[in-house]
Amino acid sequence: MGACALAFTASATAQSAWPDKPVTLVVPYSAGGPTDVVARLLAVPMGKSLGQAVIVENTVGAGGTIAAARTARAAPNGYTILIHHMGMATAPALYKKLPFDPMKDFEYIGQVLDVPMTLLSRKDFPANTFPELLAYVKANKDKVSLANAGVGAVSQLCGLLFISQIGVNLTTVPYKGAGPALNDLLGGQVDLLCDQTTQTAPVIKDGNRVKVFGVTTQKRLSSMPDIPTLDEQGLKGFEVKVWHGIYAPKGTPPAVRDKLNAALRAGLQDSHVKQRLAESSSEIVPVDKQTPEALRTHLQAEIDKWGKVIRAAGVQAE
């Protein structure tokens, strides 16, 4: 009895003293990309809240599955956590042999932000309005190309959803990244692209480099209020947001998870973080979504949603 009490006291003390060393925040994508930028923005205020440095570590490859698997296998002590976007939800349908289960192998810390997307065309595309775009695409489906950043990329998923809702099978052109896809759109080599505002907002604000047919959110963006949503233009229910969440290995103690969640909330209230995210048209999720349960619920809903789209399109990653 005494030994059990001592063990419990030692465990509680260790958790109350957590963290006593830096925390590693694993990013599944390369430095400088949208997810990496978010991670590095949050790392500083989260570190201040925790009283220890939060070190960003890029673990790249296989559409983010290498980083997720590494985090799932890490010691469940809160010192290795993961920030991942909606790739956590699409991976089960994209990969035949996934080395982790998004719904069983993690503890959920909270949602972070949503990055809207925009549907663009090259500047000399024949259509000027969304109704004109639909009419032209349906009449010239074999001639219209739709670029994306590669298999499993959010731009590909947005394109697949667009194709499924308009009922026209367009020619898709995969690239090795969002940058090359956007560059070829700007150069007139491809016709259409659906991509994140972190990539597209600068060229949209330039005024005459692309044509914009809509945003993929249910409401117009406060940063670009003149651009209508695809939903309000007839694609009812069309919504694609590049949402992000933070995860810890399964079995991470509740007290540690609570501290990580408090640090995340503090980071999202930081004025510098708010300013930088607003500049890229990214939207911090409401407070009620910054919770572990909200992330878990959203992840399951997104797995169900995108699983249907991916399986219907017959898309499979290597």
Automatic annotation (TrEMBL):
<dbReference type="Pfam" id="PF03401">
    <property type="entry name" value="TctC"/>
</dbReference>
<comment type="similarity">
    <text>Belongs to the UPF0065 (bug) family.</text>
</comment>
<protein>
    <submittedName>
        <fullName>Tripartite tricarboxylate transporter substrate-binding protein</fullName>
    </submittedName>
</protein>
<dbReference type="InterPro" id="IPR005064">
    <property type="entry name" value="BUG"/>
</dbReference>
<dbReference type="InterPro" id="IPR042100">
    <property type="entry name" value="Bug_dom1"/>
</dbReference>
